[in-house]
Design goal:
Residues 1-147 form the N-acetyltransferase domain. 31% of the residues lie in helices and 32% in strands. With 147 residues, the protein is an alpha+beta fold. It has one domain (39-145): 3-Layer(aba) Sandwich (Aminopeptidase). Strands 1-2-3-4-6-5 form a six-stranded mixed sheet.
Length: 147
């Protein structure tokens, strides 16, 4: 018999992640080939635009892993929108990912009211659309070949 729990347990969460990674490596030659390389590690990547007073004008938070850049968040303060900051942050993240970390692809998820058009303008293609995530909203997954 098994006991099912829903409590948050950081140690079990880390164990679960490790066990799944081991199983994935065993099943996938591509993941086995990453073992021991820099690309195997999920490495944070952040790019910031600071205003003259030091306040945050825009920021990009992501990570690189397995030759991919994953943009988690890209935000530009209202008063700085339209000045190209988002484009500059994205370009810098892509440059670091390509030139310094050996990434060849990039991916991002965005909602229909956010920035799918922005990413398309920067060479990203829609590869998936999830309707009603959250309800009434479409989530887009977009990818781009770097370089």
């Amino acid at each position: 018999m098994f006991r099912i729990e829903t409590e948050v347990d950081k140690e079990r969460g880390l164990l679960l992640r490790s066990l799944l990674q081991d199983a994935n490596r065993a099943a996938s030659p591509a993941l086995r080939d990453l073992r021991g390389t820099a690309a195997e590690r999920e490495t944070p990547l952040q790019v910031w635009a600071l205003a003259e007073d030091g306040s945050l004008a825009a920021g990009l938070d992501g990570h690189t892993w397995a030759t991919w850049l994953h943009v988690n968040l890209l935000w530009v303060a209202d008063q700085h929108r339209g000045a190209g900051l988002g484009s500059r942050l994205l370009a810098e993240a892509e440059r670091v990912a390509l030139e310094e970390r050996g990434c060849v692809n990039s991916r991002v998820e965005t909602w229909d009211f956010q920035a799918p058009g922005f990413y398309r303008q920067h060479g990203y293609d829609v590869v998936a659309v999830v309707p009603d995530y959250p309800p009434g909203v479409k989530e887009f997954t977009l990818t781009k070949r770097l370089g």
